[in-house]
Design goal:
The chain has about 450 residues and is an alpha+beta fold. Helix content is about 25%, strand content about 35%. The protein contains nine helices and 17 strands. Strand 9 (about 310-315) and strand 10 (about 320) form a beta hairpin. Belongs to the peptidase U62 family.
């Protein structure tokens, strides 16, 4: 869609935000910020090649936060009529008059507002019908069911097509909007052999509908992953090198996101408290944040407070180079806002040059982890203990699948003991990484 067409879509949303800000000012507020979103999407799921559900959603909502000095009130409305917007502003003002003062609250500083607005190529609307999406899901299921005789049934396939617009404005005079699209396809199957059953899946996600991996490939991969898990064994307790598959490696780095986020830090609830500018990873390892990647799944010109996003090193040659701070957490910590209200932006992990297959060989004897379960991660101490499944590797060769094990360690040690990162990255999330090899972890089994 052309930029002029996007502007036409954003215009009524910007008008609604402007109206709310003007009304907030007329009530005598010291500052206000307003966010509005409009989304629509179509989701189709199938099971055993029959359509199971078709869901269409189209909704929007406006949220306002109004400040009276250090006192704030917030309210929201899904009714975007002028009368409803005014009522929402009145409600926020009423709350602000009765809340306690917090000297750290307020808008992000005016000088940090974004001033450049690149076309990040995030919006590719596609006219799709339930019938067309159902065909894709059925193709994925068909490919999976035909891939191996041990695939006994499908647990379903799902296709989603979503587009959305968002606008943010505040009393600094900032008023900007962005459009985005996202499409996805997934397939889940069940394999059975000798009264043993296993379940696994595969998926694809993209900004452009035509960039999705073909349903046949998704179905075949789902089947292969599921069949590979058959005849899984248990293990005795032992200490071994651990190789996290790319999908699981993203979660390992997700714990870093929580540990260096301002909310955890000012509450003194992070295992990386006071770790800024210290070495927490090996010297060869870095993480670059790239908010302006064209078509990136987590690209944005500004965060949810209007603060400009910038390229930055999160980890620089092993050193923690940046926390993730909003305006509130930055003030609480006496630091500078980093523009992370709303999340992170396309973290790309450095690699050590090997492919994932090469890392399996280099590990020699150890465990390849392809699934983790449970919530056994303590964000305060960094203690890590999770149920897991994967494959036992000996002499660089995958021998057999394993299940009903627990892998345990401490995230500080796990980060320090990273041996390698594969160069073939998984690009399906905001953390873009290959498989991660750790020198060792405790594996608890029988």
């Amino acid at each position: 869609m052309s930029s002029s067409s996007i502007d036409i879509e954003l215009a009524p949303l910007k008008n609604a935000v402007s109206m709310a800000l003007e009304y907030a000012a007329s009530l005598g507020s010291s500052a206000a910020e307003v966010a509005i979103s409009k989304q629509q999407g179509l989701s189709v799921s199938t099971r055993l090649k029959e359509v199971e559900t078709v869901e269409f959603n189209k909704d929007g909502a406006l949220g306002i936060t109004l400040y009276r000095g250090g006192c704030k009130g917030s309210s929201s409305t899904s009714d975007l009529s002028p009368e409803a917007i005014k009522e929402a502003v009145k409600a926020a003002d009423g709350i602000a008059r009765f809340t306690s003062e917090d000297t750290f609250s307020g808008l992000a500083d005016k000088e940090r507002m974004a001033a450049e607005f690149r076309d990040l190529e995030l919006y590719y609307p596609e006219e799709v019908t339930p019938e067309a999406l159902a065909k894709l899901a059925i193709r994925a299921e068909t490919a999976a069911l035909e891939a191996d005789k041990q695939i006994k049934t499908s647990d379903g396939a799902n296709v989603n097509a979503h587009t959305g617009f968002k606008v943010y404005g505040n009393s600094h005079g900032f008023l900007q909007g962005e459009a985005s699209s996202r499409y996805s396809l997934s397939c889940v199957v069940i394999a059975e052999a000798e009264d043993k059953m296993q379940r696994d899946y595969d998926y694809t996600v993209a900004r452009q509908f035509d960039a999705l991996v073909s349903p046949e490939i998704i179905g075949q991969k789902a089947a292969e992953k599921t069949v590979d898990r058959l005849y899984a064994r248990k293990m005795a307790t032992i200490k071994l090198p651990i190789l996290f598959s790319p999908e699981i490696a993203t979660g390992l780095m997700g714990h870093l996101v929580g540990a260096i986020s301002g909310g955890s830090l000012y509450r003194n609830s992070s295992f990386l408290q006071d770790a800024l500018d210290t070495d927490i990873f090996p010297e060869w390892f870095s993480i670059a944040e790239q908010p302006h990647l064209l078509g990136g799944l987590s690209s944005a010109n500004f965060d949810s407070e209007g603060v400009a996003t910038v390229d930055r090193k999160i980890i620089d040659n092993g050193r923690l180079a940046s926390y993730l701070l909003t305006s509130y957490s930055a003030r609480k910590l006496g630091m500078t806002n980093t523009g992370h209200a709303g999340g992170i932006y396309n973290w790309t992990l450095s690699d050590t040059g090997q492919t994932f297959s090469q890392l399996i060989k280099e590990m020699n004897t150890g465990l390849l982890i392809t699934e983790v379960m449970g919530q056994g991660v303590n964000g305060v101490t960094g203690d890590y203990s999770r149920g897991a499944a994967g494959f036992y590797v000996e002499n660089g060769v995958i021998l057999y699948p394993v299940e009903e094990i627990t892998i345990a360690g401490n995230l500080k040690d796990m980060y320090k003991n990273m041996v390698a990162v594969a160069k073939d990255r998984d690009l399906r999330s905001s953390i873009r990484t290959g498989g991660i090899l750790l020198s060792d972890m405790t594996v608890a089994g029988n």
